[in-house]
From TrEMBL:
Transmembrane region(s): 83-100, 120-143
GO cellular component, as recorded: peroxisomal membrane
Subunit structure: Homooligomer. Interacts with ARC5 and FIS1B on peroxisomes.
Family, as annotated: Belongs to the peroxin-11 family.
Coiled coil: none
Superkingdom of origin: Eukaryota
GO molecular function, one term: identical protein binding
UniProt KW Membrane keyword: yes
Organism lineage string: Eukaryota, Viridiplantae, Streptophyta, Embryophyta, Tracheophyta
Keywords tagged on the record: Membrane, Peroxisome, Peroxisome biogenesis, Transmembrane, Transmembrane helix
Function: Involved in peroxisomal proliferation. Promotes peroxisomal duplication, aggregation or elongation without fission.
Protein name: Peroxisomal membrane protein 11-4
Gene source species: Vitis vinifera (Grape)
InterPro entries: PEX11
Length: 227
């Protein structure tokens, strides 16, 4: 498939695709708000409204998303005991994140008591950050294994130019790029989650949050874009 419009239509038909687009809106508007807040308060107010609306929209799109982690554990928990252990911890954290994110969304839009928002935000962000740590560990283990496998293929193959060897090396490298994109997204989202759990000048600065959000969104674009 080489047609860009066809790829864009397929990308936006996915829940993850539309989420990454709206996430881009959310964090671009956050950076715009920070940049124009002092000089153009009216424009800053509009940017803030766009940011808030985008954030709430993303929460609505994620309805039922906690079932993804449950299904991953049910269908493919991991090939080894180590990966199964990491998968349980990572997906458990992600399930907590998405489940309590429902209550955060409902409290933010006024269906539930607004006082619940802070508590739900903390629980959701804690589960999110917990899960990301183990997803990152899993990806680094897989990247390390891929590097070792690639070296073994190159050093042990008698004819390094054979199509089979080239295809295997290409597949390993493509998987590595995808996992590096996943690590970049998870680290960026971890920074955003820490800003909720333990507010600090670095993580809570608008630039840190804006750049982290865009790194995560654009890494997601790369990973979900149709090949």
């Amino acid at each position: 498939m080489n047609d860009t419009v066809d790829k864009l239509v397929i990308f936006l038909a996915k829940r993850d695709g539309i989420d990454k687009l709206v996430k881009t809106f959310q964090y671009v508007s956050k950076l715009v708000h920070w940049h124009v807040e002092a000089a153009h308060p009216d424009a800053a107010h509009k940017a803030k409204q766009w940011e808030v609306a985008s954030g709430l929209s993303r929460k609505a799109f994620r309805s039922g998303r906690f079932l993804t982690g449950f299904n991953a554990l049910r269908r493919n928990p991991g090939s080894t005991p180590t990966f199964r252990f990491l998968a349980v911890l990572a997906n458990a954290g992600e399930m907590v994140y998405f489940f309590f994110d429902h209550f955060l969304w409902l409290s933010r839009i006024g269906v539930l008591d607004a006082k619940l928002a802070r508590r739900m935000s903390f629980i959701s962000a804690f589960g999110e950050s917990f899960g990301y740590i183990f997803f990152i560990i899993s990806d680094f283990i897989m990247i390390k294994g891929g590097v070792e496998q690639e070296r073994k293929l190159i050093t042990t193959s008698t004819d390094k130019s054979t199509d089979d060897v080239k295809a295997s090396v290409r597949k390993i490298r493509e998987d590595r790029v995808m996992r590096l994109m996943a690590v970049a997204a998870n680290v960026a989202d971890l920074i955003i989650a820490v800003a909720d759990i333990e507010p600090n000048p670095f993580c809570n600065h608008a630039v840190s949050l804006g750049i982290s959000g865009l790194v995560s969104a654009w890494a997601g674009w790369y990973r979900n874009w149709p090949s």
